[in-house]
Amino acid sequence: MNEILKISSVSKTYKTEHGPLKVLDDVSFSVNKGSWTMLVGASGSGKTTLLQLLGALDKPDVGTIQLSGSDYAKAGSFASAKTRREKLGFVFQSFNLLPELTALENIMLPGLFKSSDKKAVKKRAQDLLAKLNLSDRATHKPNALSGGEQQRIAIARSLINDPEIILADEPTGNLDPSTSDVIIDIFKGLIKDQGKTIVMVTHDHALKSHASKVLQLDKGRIVKRA
Q1: Mean pLDDT of the chain
Q2: What count of other Cβ atoms lies within 10 Å of the Cβ of residue 209?
Q3: pTM for the full model?
């Protein structure tokens, strides 16, 4: 497999009222295309901060983050937004669906930031709904959907711009075990059928068996690789 992400000597410190807090400390690893990397560790170990850096939502103090050989860690706001829009898809524990929009409209939203062809974006969103067996929920708003349905809508939204990498932060954290299994099967299908790359934060060690690589963080450092 080809290397798609390369993280080299990344560190991040935040200023707090109690002084500087080092959240990531000299983190280095690589991610292969079509693989599933899981980030595990206790609360406060740096997992979510690392995911935010990979998602160009924040910048490291030092180090590089390369996507297909291009360093985007220190890119300007316009270039970072373009990377997020075109290369990355995001799935969150809390779903982050807009309550005033229907399922279909939530899926379409990132696509409309990338393309002015509303008809084509709508067609792709409808296709994604169909693939996730949610066509009958297209006009429902989030409060009329179960947690599992909301997360499937969120996954469809993450796929609307056909990203290379899916970044998932505790995507099964708010779901019961059987619904979690559905989400994991969807992720497995994205890798197997579409060659997507997934980097996922999880506290559920039972999910590690699905991973290509598991990185355990502790106090901002990678302390174990499997």
Answers
A1: 93
A2: 9
A3: 0.91
